[in-house]
Write a structure and sequence with these properties.
The complex is a heterodimer of chains A (about 500) and B (about 240).
Chain A: H1 2-23, H2 34-65, H3 71-83, H4 86-97, H5 112-136, H6 140-148, H7 153-181, H8 185-190, H9 198-208, H10 212-233, H11 258-289, H12 294-324, H13 327-333, H14 335-338, H15 341-351, H16 359-386, H17 391-399, H18 404-432, H19 436-441, H20 449-458, H21 462-492
Helix pairs in contact in A: 1-15, 2-5, 2-7, 2-11, 3-5, 3-11, 4-11, 4-21, 5-7, 6-7, 7-10, 9-10, 9-15, 11-21, 12-13, 12-16, 12-18, 12-20, 16-18, 18-21, 20-21
Chain B: E1 2-11, E2 14-22, E3 26-31, H1 38-46, E4 51-58, E5 61-62, E6 73-76, H2 88-93, H3 104-116, H4 132-146, E7 150-154, H5 162-178, E8 182-186, H6 190-193, E9 199-204, E10 207-212, H7 214-219, H8 223-229
Parallel strand pairs in B: 3-8, 3-9, 6-7, 7-8
Antiparallel strand pairs in B: 1-2, 1-4, 4-5, 9-10
Helix pairs in contact in B: 3-4, 4-5
């Protein structure tokens, strides 16, 4: 049933693409200027991925080998960019490196460099956490053996840590590449005529230039690119990003040399310097400009309503997919990544052209798109929960005749409750900070916090934009903090 | 010969105290309830846990401050004794040189060790293609190559079936006698190893007692040992 629903949404998005192929068959991609967009999309994604992955490994390795006061806090800090809406990070970077920022001109913010910097800001901390999680699986016995066999730091890394890291690299790199290739908000704000990603170009062709054939050509390329990468990424979604242990390491680890310790500390400081200033810039400028006018209240209310509705639908869709936990369900849960939002929206937009435009339709489309975008993450979190209900639980429940609601209440819900709460909160954060769906479908005065901030930035009302960004950050930060708190409580239980 | 002179070590909130000596060519079982400190004792001897006070001596030499690599000790664990990406031969060769740059003499030592444990025909295999018993034999072959004076075994045969456990135990007994090793074997099967070992150490609540002969251990009137052996009357 759910599988069918998601597939329907997917097919509705794909339908115009197939129609275009069958009827118009305009294959002259060069005439529509598609290739420069493809080349730029791939180039920025590749460089962003390389920097994020290599630096992410170095930071994760430093964190594994080095116990220091505040290590748990630092790991929490690395989770913050994952909760930060892209539009808030854009404002943070502008406050730092923009023309009227604190460090004007230090980094050229507009164009290739700015896009890569913003992508690294988001993805390096995520890489560090995912690689740290992979490294944590290295057995203590391996380190003991290496120490006993007089292996140096390089040999210990090669024989003990690298085998844990190696399988994670392809998966994490593909995930980061996919996220960067599908970048919308960052490319929309820091890009330009020659610095445009596929997602932005699709939006511009559709909503600004009304060039439907070009939008469809770009969509085809985007689907081919995402489809090729998705099977590599599928495994990365199985890892639960919350499952990072914050406890100090109690077992044996080789003592790093003085030089390595200095390097480890330098790496940790560098990572903190990447995350903290952006965060502080948003809070410093934002808390001064915090304002509660009628549009702010309206945007806050709409954001919370949209976020909650999208999160509940994402959860309802994710539940049966996570419970089935088979290849088909897994693939379907990743639908929104195979068919990126702008592509899906293109299909829906073309199909619904004939319908009268209304507030309710826009609201429903935004919720539908947001819930599909939150689905991969919600399904991954719930799958991790369902996997804790072991075959032993299942056999015991069957033997005792526990079925239906009783089985749900006694066997499933106690195990799944924290996962459900985390999935709901993170899906809300995802939807609250989203600017893609609102940009593609927003009309009829639907105002959310991200769209309000975008409008304020567009009208050069910097102080007000900063205030809205700070409010958005505080709401998303509080929800993320709650989600992490639940995950940790569950970890300790 | 290994001597622990009034050693005190701490990890987290757990404290372990020991004071004993064991001669060369002797096989000693380390017994005690779960969480009592048996593995911690091996960690102190191997240098994985630091001492708060006391000394560890091997053949009279104080190794208390020496790094694990500088102690003439080999340790075999229940699992993860082999690097999964290396062949059987390379895993054993690591005992001769961590860089795997071996002299001709080293290479013959590796071949001999593998022949000694009956794995000469499996040298090219990766660990995942070996049985549990074969994996532990590879670890023992590396012990032979390292020419250590002390062998520490942390429940190395717990995952094997009884027949294989007896076979591996005999292998350890032979190695201990041939190489004149001092071997400490952590185990949860006192009856199974009773006839094979020379001494027994008993660890309870962070305190090591012994060594004592197996007969003395089983005849011991201590309530802690009786409880461990399940001899305490209920009610």
């Amino acid at each position: 049933m759910v599988q069918g629903l998601v597939l329907c949404a997917l097919l509705l998005g794909l339908l115009p693409l197939f129609e275009f192929l069958a009827t118009q068959g305009d294959w002259n991609f060069a005439a529509h200027g598609v290739w420069p967009v493809v080349v730029f999309t791939l180039k920025q994604a590749l460089i962003s991925t390389l920097i994020s992955v290599v630096a992410g490994i170095a930071v994760a390795h430093a964190l594994l080998r080095q116990n220091f006061p505040g290590r748990a806090l630092f790991l929490k800090l690395l989770a913050l960019p994952m909760a930060m809406p892209a539009i808030v990070a854009v404002l943070g970077l502008v406050s730092l490196f923009g023309n009227s920022g604190l460090l004007p001109g230090v980094v050229p913010l507009y164009g290739f460099t700015g896009i890569v910097l913003a992508h690294v800001f988001f993805n390096l901390p995520m890489c560090a956490r995912l690689f740290f999680q992979a490294l944590q699986a290295a057995p203590e016995e391996g380190f003991k053996l290496a120490a006993q066999l007089n292996m140096g730091e390089a040999a210990t890394f090669r024989h003990v840590e690298w085998p844990q890291l190696q399988p994670a690299i392809a998966r994490v790199a593909s995930l980061v590449f996919l996220l960067c290739a599908a970048s919308f908000v960052i490319a929309l704000n820091f890009g330009g005529a020659s610095a445009t990603t596929l997602e932005v170009a699709i939006y511009q062709s559709l909503r600004l230039d009304f060039d439907v054939p070009r939008a469809l050509q770009l969509s085809l390329v985007q689907v081919a690119l995402s489809g090729t990468l998705i099977w590599l990424v599928a495994k990365a979604f199985e890892s639960d990003a919350f499952a990072v242990s914050l406890k100090p390491w109690q077992g044996f680890r080789p003592r790093p040399s003085l030089a390595t310790r200095a390097l480890n500390i330098a790496l940790v400081c560098a990572a903190a310097l990447l995350v903290l200033p952006v965060l502080l810039a948003v809070l410093a400028s934002g808390l001064q400009g915090l304002h509660f006018t009628a549009p702010t209240w309206q945007a806050l209310g709409t954001s919370l309503a949209l976020g909650l509705a999208s999160a509940v639908i994402a959860l309802l869709l994710a539940w049966p997919l996570a419970r089935a936990d088979d290849a088909a369900s897994h693939l379907i849960s990743l639908a929104a990544m195979i068919l990126p939002p702008a592509v899906m929206a293109t299909g829906w937009f073309i199909l619904l052209r004939g319908l009268p435009d209304s507030w309710a339709l826009s609201f429903a489309l935004i919720v539908a798109l947001n819930s599909l975008m939150a689905l991969p993450f919600a399904a991954a979190t719930l799958t991790a929960g369902f996997r804790k209900i072991t075959p032993v639980h299942e056999r015991l429940a069957s033997q005792l005749g526990l079925q239906g609601l009783a089985r749900l209440r006694i066997v499933e819900l106690p195990v799944l409750r924290p996962h459900l709460a985390q999935a709901l909160l993170m899906a809300m954060v995802n939807s609250l900070g989203d600017l893609t769906a609102i940009t593609l479908f927003g009309s009829h005065g639907i105002l959310t916090l991200p769209s309000l901030q975008q409008a304020e930035m567009g009208h050069y009302r910097g102080a007000e934009a900063a205030g809205t960004a700070a409010l958005l950050l505080l709401v998303c930060g509080a929800l993320t903090f709650l989600a992490h708190h639940l995950a940790e409580q569950h970890d300790h239980a | 010969m290994i001597t622990l002179e009034n050693t005190v070590s701490k990890r987290g909130g757990f404290t372990l105290k020991a004071n004993f000596a064991l001669g060369e060519g002797r096989l000693c079982a380390v017994l005690g309830p779960s969480g009592a400190g048996k593995s911690s004792l091996l960690n102190v001897i191997a240098g994985f846990d630091d001492l708060v006070s006391g000394r560890v001596l091997i053949d009279g030499e104080d190794v208390s401050r020496a790094s694990p690599a500088r102690r003439p000790i080999s340790m075999v664990f229940q699992d993860h004794n082999l690097f999964p990406h290396l062949s059987v031969w390379d895993n054993v060769a690591l005992g001769a040189a961590a860089s795997l740059r071996l002299t001709e003499e080293d290479k013959s030592r590796v071949d001999e060790a593998l022949a000694r444990v009956g794995l000469a025909s499996l040298t090219a295999r990766k660990p995942f293609r070996l049985s549990g018993g074969e994996r532990q034999r590879v670890a023992l072959a590396r012990v032979l190559v390292r020419r250590s004076k002390v062998l520490l075994l942390d429940e190395p045969f717990a995952a094997l079936d009884p027949g294989l456990r007896a076979e591996m135990l005999q292998e350890v007994v032979d190695l201990t006698r041939e190489q004149k090793l001092t071997t400490l074997l952590v185990t949860h099967q006192p009856e199974e190893i009773r006839a094979a070992v020379d001494d027994m150490l008993f660890v309870a609540a962070g305190q090591v007692s012994g060594p004592m002969a197996p007969a003395a251990f089983f005849a011991n009137g201590s309530p802690a040992i009786a409880a461990y052996l399940g001899l305490t009357a209920r009610g």
